[in-house]
Amino acid sequence: MTIVKSTNGTAYINNNIPEQVWDTIYAFLLEVKGLHIKNKERTRCFIEGIWYVLRTGCQWRLLPPYYGHWRQVHRRYKIWADRGIWSDLMSAVSEIDDQAVMIDATIVRAHACASGYEKDGNEAQVLGRSKGGFTTKIHALVDGLGNPIKFLLTGGHRNDITQAVELLKDQRDTVVLADKGYDSQPFINTLESKGCSATIPSKKNAKNPRKIDKEQYKERFLIEAFFSKIKQFRRVFSRFDKTTSAFSGFLHLAGALIWMR
Fold first, then answer.
1. What is the pTM for the complete model shown?
2. Domains in the chain and their CATH numbers?
3. Residue-level pLDDT at 119
């Protein structure tokens, strides 16, 4: 815990991002072209503000003033999100163990303030109507240790398997673990054509259920544990952002922070 000064000279206690994590983030940012980050203290204050919103899920206008004016922080965050800075950060800090990978999906409720962005319609902003109202579904690919590799977003009404091929398009010669929702012979054939083996149980009504390694399948709990970790970040647990890029930015930043723990 250290006492630092914000951009407006106000002193506050910095107990958010650990020093080692901050050093890793700043080292990455220095490699990105076109970012105004020469002032290390101001850059850290900005990142701390984003961390605060991610952890607490607060409205932008309720951001404590020592992080800077909320409009400026929000505008800068959105520009970085549109450029893919946060997803690039997660990729940069990843050390993937791809001997086995897991896929699954989870639904997050979308607050009323997330709707109303009419550009290209709701489908483009990955909002869907289901029994719980407006929802967004996070399709995730994690490695053998339960750390995130890739995310895809759809409306909450979309079936899990619709994004399976896209999630795994870069994976070859590995073991793929998934639940019964991914039991589809065309999907299994696609995996086998890339040298992957599928540990996916058959549905109860399958005429010829496939045999799987049950001990290996138990490892699938790691992706459920990952969803539990990611939903500790309240800006991910519930969607408040109108645009896909803004919500995706928080999701990838949370993923990067899990990698850096």
1. 0.90
2. 2-83 (no CATH), 96-241 (3.30.420)
3. 59
